[in-house]
Design brief:
The protein has 5 helices and 4 strands; from the N terminus they run H-H-H-E-E-H-E-E-H. By secondary structure, the protein is mainly α.
Length: 174
């Protein structure tokens, strides 16, 4: 499969997470609720590396928060009428078949959830609010290192997918 075919397949997977803003908002809300339950369940092993992972539960949670904040900023830009500037189209890095977190989404050494919870709630509210106004305008996209050009609604779909992926890892830490 060519890199472009892989991107097209991943984008098609995203579209199955919801066709409309309401559907994507519902999926996001379910994933965020489940993520919060997984965070609560992982507290006893918060600073212990997750099974098969280099990161601890604290680092996984911070990574999800960083991606959610970034995704919300990008979706807000795409949903607005602000002009879009060209950005570098640097493809994501994979190591041993695993996607590596891009710069800016890598967690620090691990913080208590209480230090992240307020930012998480703000990002949650922004993601859910954006779903109501985000569109799938192919003329307004922003490059994702693993998914290619994504619309505002695609960025929210991607956030739902990403939250679910890391939530399942946290559930293994409980």
């Amino acid at each position: 499969m060519t890199p472009q075919e892989e991107i097209e397949e991943r984008t098609a997977e995203l579209r199955r997470l919801g066709a409309t803003g309401d559907e994507v908002a519902a999926r996001l809300e379910r994933e965020l609720d489940a993520f919060e339950r997984a965070v609560a369940g992982a507290q006893a092993r918060w600073h212990v590396p997750l099974p098969g992972r280099e990161w601890t539960a604290a680092q996984e949670a911070e990574h999800v928060l960083l991606v959610n904040e970034s995704s919300a900023r990008i979706a807000a830009l795409l949903a607005s009428d602000r002009p879009l500037r060209p950005v570098p189209r640097t493809p994501g890095e994979e190591r041993d078949g695993k996607r590596q977190a891009p710069e800016g989404t890598r967690p620090g050494p691990g913080q208590p959830w209480e230090a992240l919870a307020e930012r998480h709630q703000a990002a949650r509210a922004q993601l859910l609010a954006l779903a109501a106004q985000a569109g799938d305008d192919p003329g307004r996209t922003f490059f994702h290192p693993f998914m290619g050009d994504l619309t505002a609604l695609d960025w929210l779909r991607m956030a739902a997918y990403h939250i679910g992926h890391h939530r399942r890892q946290l559930e293994g830490a409980g």
